[in-house]
Design goal:
alpha/beta, eight-stranded mixed beta sheet, two-stranded antiparallel ribbon, disordered C terminus
């Protein structure tokens, strides 16, 4: 493979896998790979303690019953195999694998620590899985300053830091990125001083109330969020940290898939700005936050997931398998809401719809001069 033809993180491991970290230092593409690693199913392979194994040893156990293990992306097993075969990743040490899931607490949390001897330790946080519970926890972030997984992340960094020496890096994709940022900024200062990098890959920002004074946190200068040019999830909530736009070869929300992010050599291919699609969602989501109170947002989330519970499904895949039937169940539940609840749901969706509608019209008409002129005249009138 030509060094200038690297396409994504799979290609990166193939091309750069023969270079150990002592010959070529840890970089941002490595951070994405290690962040993705938390999606590998380590059930009955690792536990939440210092007793672990290398990437290569873990892959042997994983591969022994690979077909039975859940996969969050079709490329994940291939990435794991390549890492296990590579000089760069195969001897990294895995430990402190934690997994928490609770419908009662609305909690979906999984993480693992990946160590390069005693030199550095990468705390990798998994993003949202396809469970209804996982998605509900994401939406709780729109009105709760701290959700269960954020509390778990803070406890986790305290645990790992107390049993290790050396530098700390944190990273995650999607919600995992949010957890990495949260843990780095709200851990105690002694731990924070060991942090040398925090990588959020298309992860939501933080609750607005948490942003006050975060520039003074010891880890803040090391925090960066990487988003594709049509980011949706990364535009949720608020950001103050460095933001980097990475070019994806996919369209729309599919860009959330990190296997579509382009890499050349050991760098991401950067994009100059976010697309109109991403800017539309950013404006619509922040309109939603601004125009509804915290209590109203909480009520909307409860209504939506009460409706989903009527479908008796645990994952989004389950919902999709019988989409029409489940949609009818949701609509029946919505029709049974009292007048005030129906009004609130319509208002919430109306705020988002109106914001998107105006931006979509502006985007489409910007390519048709005479329509753009007519639209402008109508709005002035």
């Amino acid at each position: 493979m030509n060094k200038n033809e690297v396409r994504n993180i799979i290609d990166y491991v193939i091309w750069r896998g023969d270079l150990p970290f002592e010959r070529d230092h840890f970089n941002e593409v490595d951070a994405l790979i290690l962040s993705r690693f938390s999606y590998m199913d380590m059930k009955n392979i690792l536990w939440n303690d210092e007793n672990g194994m290398t990437v290569a040893e873990a892959y042997e156990k994983y591969h022994a019953n690979e077909e039975e293990r859940p996969k969050f992306a079709v490329q994940d097993p291939e990435l794991f195999r390549l890492m296990a075969d590579s000089e760069r990743f195969r001897n990294l040490y895995l430990s402190y694998h934690d997994f928490q899931f609770s419908n009662d607490e609305v909690e979906q949390f999984s993480t693992i620590t990946i160590s390069y001897g005693n030199n550095w330790h990468f705390l990798s946080f998994r993003g949202t899985d396809n469970t209804i519970n996982g998605w509900k926890e994401d939406l709780l972030m729109t009105f709760d300053e701290e959700v269960a997984s954020q509390s778990d992340a803070l406890e986790y960094i305290n645990l790992v830091a107390s049993h290790t020496t050396g530098d700390l890096f944190l990273g995650g994709h999607s919600k995992g990125g949010n957890l990495a940022v949260y843990a780095s900024l709200f851990c105690n200062d002694e731990i924070a001083k060991r942090i040398k990098g925090v990588f959020s890959f298309d992860g939501p920002g933080l609750h607005q109330k948490l942003l006050e004074g975060i520039e003074n946190k010891p880890a803040f200068p090391f925090v960066a969020t990487y988003m594709p040019q049509s980011s949706v999830f990364g535009k949720m909530l608020s950001h103050k940290e460095l933001q980097v736009t990475v070019h994806s070869n996919a369209a729309g929300v599919i860009q959330h898939d990190v296997y579509t992010w382009e890499v050349v050599r050991k760098d991401f291919v950067l994009s100059e700005e976010n697309t109109a699609f991403s800017r539309m969602f950013d404006e619509a989501f922040h309109d939603y936050l601004a125009k509804l109170t915290r209590e109203e947002r909480g009520k909307v989330v409860s209504i939506i997931f009460d409706a989903l519970e009527k479908c008796d499904v645990e994952t989004m895949d389950d919902f999709s398998k019988h989409f029409v039937r489940n949609l009818m169940t949701v609509m029946k539940h919505m029709n049974g809401l009292d007048e005030n609840e129906q009004k609130l749901v319509k208002e919430a969706f109306g705020i988002i719809g109106d914001s998107l509608k105006d931006d979509i019209i502006d985007e489409v008409t910007s390519y048709i001069p005479f329509l753009k002129k007519e639209q402008k005249t109508e709005r002035q009138n």
